[in-house]
Amino acid sequence: MYSIPNDNHIIITIDGPTGSGKSTAARILAEKLKFEYVDSGTIYRILTYLALKKGIRLSEHKKLFELLNNIRVNFAGEDVLLNGKNITGDIRTLEITNKVHSFSKIQKIREAVNVYIRKLIKDKDAVVEGKDAGSVIFPEAKFRFYFDCDIKTRAARRQQDFFDSGIKIPLDKILNELQRRDGLENSNDKTASSVPEYTEIIDTTNMIAEEQVDYLYRYINANNK
Question: How many angstroms separate the CA atoms of 179 and 169, rounded?
């Protein structure tokens, strides 16, 4: 199988709103290229999960930073390992989903998470996805993509994700939540999702995951000079 030469470590970022398809596409692309895969949103979920479990408050930044400095996160396909333990189900609960934004919106915490992610893939080829992977975490990434998508399609995909986790949520409730989150991210909040400079924008509304990955793969091969 063809893979991109790694004489210089290559970072590929995929930004975009919730439900745009970036997580699945990034994971499959990383597997195809034999690159490391990092989902920045999962790091926030892990931090939220640990903080709730240990009773650490949002205001206790020092303790939250200590948590980050003492964890080992690995992505194994669709599974997430924390210090070798599979916690995929633990961090995908509705409770974590409802509370993770409270952690991720704090600028100091975001900065600490960004530092953690940079260390996580140091000296490695990697595909990193999130809402600011290319705009903030790795603005120097060789390939930067942004997934755009119709909000109704995003809501349907999000609902399917919940179904796959055994959670049933009405579509209109998910749609309202996405609209709320989009409003927060389009405000003056420094955590806002934005389109990185020199980014290839892809409308994934009518694209299934395989089509998204194929587009990314062909684009990277054609432009890897």
Answer: 16
